[in-house]
Q: What sequence folds into this?
C-alpha cells in the first residue's frame, strides 16, 4: 500500500515566478495495483513520483509506503531515498555506462546494508534478468544495448531487491511505436506476476488506459479525477479530462430538466442525458459525446431504437483513416466528429441523422 | 469544486500513517543535505578566508603579527609615505600590463592561426601548445638569463664574432626583459582560454559583415573583436592578477637589474640581511595588493559570467570555414615555430648546455670537447638533492590528491545541492586567485609559526597545504564542468538503489569522472612540482623542494648544477604534460 496526502511543492523560477508543481496531491494505492499518473507536460507527474522516491522533498504533506511513514512535514520526518526500499525506472534509464549489465543489476545488492554473499548476488541477478528476459547479457557493456534492452535492464535493476513499490517515469517514451506496444504488455505481465504495487507516470493516454488498474488524471499540480480506465473514459468528471483522454465532441446547451433522466436543450433540439448530481435546471453545460458513440444514418432511415437521441445534420467532410472513416457533421449548432466503418461512409453534402444513446451523453459543467 | 486538497486520498491513508509505528532509521530532521555544504563552507573559510584575514589583521598590528595586541595604522603610513612604494606599484603595474599585453597578443595570433586559418601543421601545433607548461616561468627566466646575459650569455657569445663586441652590452635585466619572458610564459594559459572563443565564433557573422561591404580590418574590428571581448576581458584580468603577484621572473631577472616589483620587495623584506623581517610593512604591502587584486577578481567574475552568456548564443551546427592564408601560409608557420623556439627549445638548449659545460662562459667551440655529466654527478651525490626530490614528490602527490578530493566535493556540492547559498562555496573557492602566492606563503607563516597545536611549520606539510590552497580555484572549476556532464539521474538511480552518499560518490561519481580526475591530478602534479613562490616563503632547513634548491644554487652562483636540476625537471614535466594532453584529448573524444 502506498498513500500520499496533501502534498505541496512550489518551485521558484529564475524570473521570480512561482510554479505549483504539486497543489494538494493525495492518493491511496492498494497492494498490487498499477496506478497511473496521467497528464499533460508540466502538470507535476514527475514531481509527485520523485517525492515518493525521496528525490524531491515536498513543502508539506505526508507519504507512507506500506506501514512506514517516509515523509511527514508536520512531524519533520524524512526518510532518505536510499532507505525507502523502492525500485525506480528513470525516463533516461540511468544505466551506469562504466559497468556491464551484471554489475548494473548487482549494484543495489552491493550497496545494501546487509552483506549479500557473492553466490546470492549471482542468483538474484540471474533471477532479475530472467524476469525481464535478458539472460545471457550479463557481460555485455551497458553502453552496447539497444533502447529496449536498456529499458529491460533498468527494470531488472529496479526489481532485484524485490522492492515493495515500483516507480516508473515514462519508461516507454524513448522507444519506437512497435517496441512501445510490446513492452507495454510485457511490463504489465511482469507487474502482475510479481504483484508489485506500481506507480506509472505517462502523458500517453493509450498507455494509461491499456495498462492501469487505476488512472489518476493530473492538471496543474492537482489530481482532478481518478478511477479505473473504463470509468475515466466513459464518465469524465471535467471538460479537461474528457478532452485529454480520447477524442470527444462538445455540444453547448442548458439543462431543461434535471435528474437521473435529464434533458439538455441544445440549438435545434433536445438531448436526453445521464446527468451527474449537482447541476440544476437552467445551468449552462457542455454535453460530451465520443465520436465512436455516434451512429450516422441516412436522413429518413428508420430509427434503430425508440428512445435514442436523434439530431439532423449534414456531412461537411469525410476523412478516410484506414480502419475507420471520420465524418465532420454540422448539427445542433456544433461540428461533430463521428467515426463509422469505412464501408458505411457518407459523402460530403449528404443529409444525415445522428443517433446517440442517452447513456453516452455526458453532461459537464461549462466552467470547471 | 470546493477544497480538493488531498480529498482524493481515500479515508484511512491518514489513519494508517498515524499508527505507523515502524520507522526504521528515519531522520527526525527535515532539513537534510545541510551537513556537507556546511562542513565545506567551514573548511573553505579556514583555507581561504582565514589566511587573507590574517594578513589584513597583521597589517594593523604594531608588531606586525596577527595574534599580538594593539591596533595601528603606522605600517600603512610608513609604506605609503615613501616615494619608493609608489615607484614599486608603478613598476608592478607596468610589468603586469606589459607582459599581459605581449602574452595575449602572441596567444591571440597563435589561436587565430591554429583555429581559424589553413596554416600548415595546425593540428601539430594545437597539440604542442601545452608543452610550454613544462617550462615554468622560473626555468624560462633562468634559460633566458643564460641565453642573454651581457658578455657571457650564449647569444652574445655566438653573435659577437659576426656583429662585433657591441652585442655583448645588450641587457635583459630591465622591465622590457622581464615583460618579454613573462609574456612568453603567459601564452599557454591565454591560448587555452582564447582558442575556444575563436573556435565558437560563428563565421556567418564575419561573412555577413564582409559581404555587406566591410573591409577585412573593419570586419575584424566591428564584428570579430566584439565576439572575443568577453574572453579577452577575462583572460586579461586573470593575467594582470597573476602578473602582479608572480615572483619567478622578478626574482631571476628583475633582482639582477635591481628592478623590483611588489612581490620581490615582499620577498626581500621577508629575508632581511640581518634582524627580524618587518612583518608589519610586509602585511601592509600585501593588504594593499590584495585590495587591487580583489578589484581585479570582481572584474574577472563579471567577465566570465558574460562569456558564458556569449558562449550559449553561438550555435553549434555550423561548419567553420577557415581563412585562406594563401602565400602567407609559410610565414604563419614560421611565426608559430619561432614561438616554440623562444618559449621552449632555446631555453631548454641553454639549460642543457649549461648543465654540461665545466664552467659557464656562453657558447664557445673550445668547450665542445669538455662537455660532461659532472654537474649531474655532483648534484646526485648530494643528500640535499635527494631530500628535495623526496619532498617535492611527497608534496606533489599529497597536494594533488587532497586538492582533487576537495575540489570534487566542492564541485559536486555546488552543482547538486538544492540550497541557494552554495554559491558562497563557489566564491570562497575562487578567493585564492586574488591572493599573491607569496602572500599566501606569508599568511601560512603567520598562522603556523606560533601555532603549536598544529606543528607543521618547517615541514613539507605546510607547503602541501599552500599548494592545496593556491591550486583550489582552478581545480574546483575543472571539477565543476566534469560534474555537470554527469546526468543527474545516474546519481539518483544510485540513491534509489540504496546507495548512501559516499557509496554514490565512490561507485558512481568517481568512476564516471575518471578522465577528468586523472587530467586534474596530472595538472596538479605538474604545477606543484614547478611551483616556487609559495614554497620559497615556507622553506626551512628540512623542507626544501627542488624548485627552491634550484633557485638557491642559481643564486649562489652554481649555474651548472641549477641547470642540471632544471633539465631533469623539464624532462619529467614534459612527460607529464604529454600524458595530460593525451588524457584531455581522450576526454574530448569520449
Ligand atoms: N527543479 C525545478 N525547478 C523549477 N521548476 C521545476 C523543477 N522541477 C519541476 N519544475 C516545474 O514544476 C512543474 C511540474 O514539473 P514535472 O517535472 O513534475 O512535470 P511533468 O508532469 O513530469 O511533465 P513532463 O510530462 O513534461 O515530464 C513544471 O512546471 C516544471 O517546470
Ligand atoms: Mg516528467
A:
Amino acid at each position: 500500500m502506498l498513500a500520499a496526502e496533501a502534498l505541496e511543492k512550489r518551485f521558484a523560477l529564475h524570473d521570480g515566478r512561482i510554479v505549483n508543481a504539486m497543489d494538494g496531491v493525495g492518493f491511496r494505492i492498494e497492494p498490487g495495483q498499477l496506478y497511473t499518473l496521467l497528464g499533460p507536460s508540466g502538470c507535476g507527474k514527475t514531481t509527485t513520483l520523485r517525492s515518493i522516491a525521496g528525490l524531491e522533498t515536498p513543502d508539506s504533506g505526508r507519504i507512507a509506503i506500506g506501514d512506514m511513514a517516509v515523509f511527514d512535514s508536520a512531524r519533520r520526518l524524512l526518510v532518505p531515498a536510499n532507505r525507502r526500499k523502492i525500485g525506480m525506472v528513470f525516463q533516461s534509464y540511468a544505466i551506469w555506462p562504466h559497468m556491464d549489465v551484471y554489475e548494473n543489476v548487482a549494484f543495489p545488492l552491493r550497496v545494501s546494508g546487509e552483506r549479500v554473499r557473492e553466490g546470492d548476488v549471482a542468483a538474484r541477478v540471474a533471477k532479475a534478468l530472467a524476469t525481464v528476459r535478458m539472460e545471457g547479457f550479463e557481460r555485455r557493456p551497458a553502453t552496447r544495448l539497444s533502447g529496449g534492452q536498456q529499458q529491460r535492464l533498468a527494470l531488472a535493476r529496479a526489481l532485484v531487491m524485490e522492492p515493495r513499490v515500483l516507480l516508473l517515469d515514462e519508461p516507454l517514451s524513448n522507444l519506437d511505436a512497435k517496441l512501445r506496444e510490446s513492452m507495454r504488455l510485457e511490463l504489465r505481465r511482469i507487474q502482475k506476476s510479481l504483484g508489485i504495487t506500481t506507480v506509472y507516470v505517462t502523458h500517453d493516454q493509450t498507455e494509461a488506459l491499456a495498462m492501469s488498474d487505476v488512472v489518476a488524471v493530473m492538471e496543474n499540480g492537482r489530481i482532478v479525477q481518478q478511477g479505473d480506465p473504463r470509468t475515466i473514459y466513459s464518465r469524465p468528471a471535467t471538460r479537461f479530462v474528457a478532452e485529454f483522454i480520447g477524442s470527444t465532441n462538445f455540444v453547448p446547451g442548458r439543462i431543461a430538466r434535471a435528474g437521473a433522466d435529464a434533458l439538455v436543450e441544445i440549438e435545434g433540439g433536445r438531448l436526453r442525458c445521464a446527468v451527474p448530481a449537482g447541476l440544476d435546471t437552467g445551468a449552462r453545460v457542455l454535453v460530451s459525446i465520443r465520436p465512436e458513440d455516434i451512429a450516422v444514418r441516412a436522413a429518413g432511415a428508420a430509427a434503430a431504437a425508440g428512445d435514442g437521441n436523434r439530431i439532423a445534420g449534414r456531412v461537411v467532410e469525410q476523412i478516410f483513416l484506414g480502419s475507420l472513416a471520420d465524418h465532420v457533421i454540422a448539427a445542433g449548432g456544433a461540428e461533430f466528429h463521428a467515426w463509422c466503418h469505412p464501408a458505411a461512409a457518407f459523402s460530403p453534402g449528404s443529409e444525415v441523422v445522428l443517433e446517440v444513446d442517452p447513456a453516452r451523453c455526458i453532461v459537464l459543467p461549462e466552467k470547471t | 469544486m470546493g477544497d480538493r486538497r488531498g480529498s482524493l486520498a481515500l479515508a484511512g491513508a491518514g489513519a494508517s500513517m498515524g499508527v505507523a509505528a515502524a520507522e526504521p532509521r528515519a531522520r527526525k530532521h527535515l532539513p537534510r543535505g545541510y551537513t556537507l555544504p556546511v562542513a565545506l563552507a567551514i573548511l573553505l573559510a579556514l583555507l581561504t578566508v582565514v589566511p587573507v584575514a590574517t594578513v589584513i589583521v597583521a597589517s594593523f598590528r604594531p608588531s606586525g603579527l596577527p595574534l599580538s595586541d594593539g591596533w595601528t595604522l603606522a605600517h600603512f603610513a610608513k609604506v605609503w609615505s615613501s616615494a619608493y612604494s609608489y615607484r614599486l606599484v608603478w613598476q608592478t603595474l607596468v610589468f603586469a600590463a606589459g607582459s599581459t599585453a605581449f602574452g595575449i597578443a602572441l596567444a591571440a595570433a597563435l589561436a587565430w592561426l591554429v583555429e581559424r586559418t589553413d596554416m600548415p601543421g595546425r593540428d601539430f601545433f594545437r597539440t604542442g601548445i601545452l608543452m610550454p607548461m613544462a617550462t615554468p616561468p622560473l626555468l624560462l627566466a633562468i634559460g633566458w638569463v643564460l641565453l642573454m646575459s651581457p658578455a657571457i650569455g650564449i647569444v652574445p657569445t655566438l653573435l659577437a664574432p659576426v656583429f662585433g663586441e657591441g652585442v655583448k652590452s645588450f641587457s635583459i635585466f630591465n622591465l622590457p626583459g622581464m615583460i618579454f619572458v613573462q609574456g612568453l610564459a603567459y601564452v599557454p594559459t591565454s591560448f587555452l582560454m582564447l582558442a575556444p572563443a575563436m573556435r565558437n565564433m560563428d563565421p556567418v557573422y564575419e561573412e555577413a559583415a564582409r559581404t555587406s561591404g566591410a573591409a577585412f580590418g573593419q570586419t575584424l574590428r566591428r564584428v570579430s573583436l566584439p565576439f572575443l571581448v568577453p574572453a579577452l576581458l577575462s583572460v586579461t584580468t586573470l593575467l594582470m592578477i597573476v602578473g602582479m603577484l608572480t615572483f619567478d621572473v622578478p626574482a631571476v631577472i628583475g633582482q639582477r637589474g635591481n628592478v623590483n616589483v611588489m612581490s620581490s620587495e615582499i620577498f626581500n623584506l621577508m629575508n632581511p640581511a640581518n634582524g627580524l623581517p618587518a612583518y608589519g610593512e610586509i602585511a601592509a604591502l600585501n593588504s594593499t595588493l590584495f585590495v587591487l587584486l580583489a578589484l581585479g577578481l570582481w572584474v574577472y567574475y563579471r567577465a566570465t559570467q558574460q562569456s558564458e552568456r556569449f558562449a550559449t548564443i553561438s550555435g553549434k551546427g555550423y561548419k567553420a570555414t577557415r581563412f585562406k592564408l594563401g602565400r602567407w601560409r609559410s610565414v604563419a608557420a614560421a611565426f608559430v615555430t619561432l614561438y616554440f623556439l623562444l618559449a621552449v627549445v632555446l631555453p631548454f638548449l641553454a639549460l642543457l648546455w649549461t648543465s654540461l659545460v665545466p664552467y659557464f662562459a656562453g657558447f664557445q667551440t673550445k668547450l665542445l670537447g669538455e662537455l660532461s655529466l659532472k654537474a649531474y654527478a655532483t648534484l646526485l651525490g648530494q643528500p640535499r638533492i635527494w631530500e628535495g626530490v623526496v619532498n617535492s614528490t611527497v608534496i606533489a602527490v599529497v597536494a594533488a590528491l587532497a586538492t582533487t578530493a576537495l575540489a570534487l566535493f566542492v564541485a559536486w556540492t555546488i552543482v547538486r545541492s538544492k540550497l541557494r547559498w552554495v554559491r558562497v562555496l563557489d566564491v570562497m573557492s575562487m578567493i585564492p586567485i586574488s591572493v599573491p602566492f607569496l602572500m599566501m606563503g606569508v599568511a601560512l607563516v603567520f598562522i603556523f609559526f606560533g601555532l603549536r597545536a598544529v606543528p607543521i611549520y618547517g615541514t613539507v606539510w605546510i607547503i602541501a597545504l599552500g599548494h592545496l590552497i593556491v591550486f583550489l580555484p582552478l581545480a574546483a572549476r575543472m571539477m565543476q564542468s566534469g560534474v555537470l556532464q554527469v546526468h543527474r539521474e545516474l546519481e539518483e538511480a544510485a540513491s534509489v538503489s540504496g546507495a548512501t552518499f559516499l557509496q554514490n560518490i565512490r561507485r558512481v561519481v568517481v568512476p564516471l569522472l575518471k578522465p577528468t580526475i586523472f587530467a586534474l591530478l596530472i595538472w596538479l602534479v605538474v604545477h606543484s612540482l614547478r611551483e616556487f613562490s609559495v614554497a620559497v616563503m615556507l622553506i626551512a632547513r628540512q623542507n626544501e623542494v627542488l624548485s627552491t634548491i634550484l633557485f638557491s644554487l642559481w643564486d649562489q652562483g652554481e649555474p651548472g648544477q641549477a641547470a642540471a636540476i632544471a633539465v631533469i625537471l623539464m624532462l619529467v614535466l614534459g612527460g607529464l604534460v604529454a600524458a595530460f594532453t593525451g588524457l584531455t584529448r581522450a576526454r574530448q573524444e569520449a
DSSP finds 25 helices and no strands in chain B. The CA atoms of residues 329 and 384 of chain B lie 50 Å apart.
